[in-house]
Amino acid sequence: MNRRTLLTGIIAFAGTRLHAQEGPFEITRTQVEWRAMLTNAEYAVMREEETEPPYSSPLLTLTRAGTYHCKGCDLPVYSSQHKYDSETGWPSFWKSLPGAVRTKPDNSLFATRTEVHCRRCGSHLGHIFDDGPAPTGKRHCLNGVSLTFKT
Question: How far is CA 32 from the centre of its chain?
Fold first, then answer.
């Protein structure tokens, strides 16, 4: 590791990364409005890009047919048809619904990851990794507190 890589990682870790709240998004709310509609845990994940503890989401083992929606704006974002058990402790999908999410680089943990957020309200959903199943090879590793499930 060279000095530039180390310094870049330290700066990213110190909190200079972009936030999912940056737009433009179709649905925007003030911080006060978000706090009024979300629990502390939901706010930390969806608006401050935190991660819920592994194996804590009731959505992790849910196997019923239906659609997962963004808790921030109710946009359908993932289908149960694309869900699989990644054995990581978070609900995982191999693809999102068409046009439902956006991505951006996340340099917060000394490495670049791909952050995934709702394209309509900007709520942080999780991260996308390149170790998923066919046909995409992607693992959309999501925070259950960012989602609601509907049949």
Answer: 21
Are 52 and 144 in contact, with CB atoms under 8 Å apart? yes
Q: In the chain, what are the domain boundaries?
A: 3-150
Q: Give the residue among 23, 27, 58 at the shortest CA–CA distance from 145.
A: 58
Contact 77, 97 (CB under 8 A): yes
CATH number of 3-150: 2.170.150.20
Edge to edge, the sheet with strand 76-79 lists 76-79, 67-70, 147-150
- Residues taking part in catalysis: 141
Overall average pLDDT of the 95-106 stretch: 97
In this structure, how many other beta carbons lie within 10 angstroms of the beta carbon of residue 55? 10
Provide mean pLDDT across the span 80-109. 96
Among 129, 68, 66, smallest CA distance to 96 is for 68
How are the residues of the chain apportioned to helix, strand and coil, as percentages rounded to the nearest 5?
A: 25, 25, 50
